[in-house]
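Worked Example 4.2. Consider the chain below.
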Amino acid sequence: MGLSQISGVRTIVLVVEDEPLLRMAAVDMVEDAGFEALEACTAAEAVAILEGRTDIHIVFTDIDMPGDMDGMRLAAIIRDRWPPIHLIVTSGHVASRDLRLPPDAVFFGKPYDERQVTQEMLKRSLNSGAGPTGA
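Applying the procedure from the previous section yields the following structure tokens:
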């Protein structure tokens, strides 16, 4: 019996990445780990998705994105408007020491180790009472 059957709730991860190939790879990583993935290509699109859903547990976002809002601003908005959502932030252009992450957010530099990212997702999903399918 998987974690999702024990808890009755499957973890939904919103992947926010503007680069299509990187977004597809991240969605595959999330789904291969047994989570349900949603995707957005901009921070504004991510906010619109979050406004329409109450079942998202984790947001996995890149920092560098086009438009008026980058991933750091998105993370701050999520922490303010949806405090229970767990935040995992990534970038290939910024070092973690240069960031001021919101409370309870974690950073992975690109290229990231997929096992470490999915382990962090699993840890955070267990804290929220949800889990991956078939884990």
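Strands lie at 12-16, 36-40, 58-62, 86-91, 105-109. The longest helix spans residues 114-127. Compare this with Example 4.1 before moving on.
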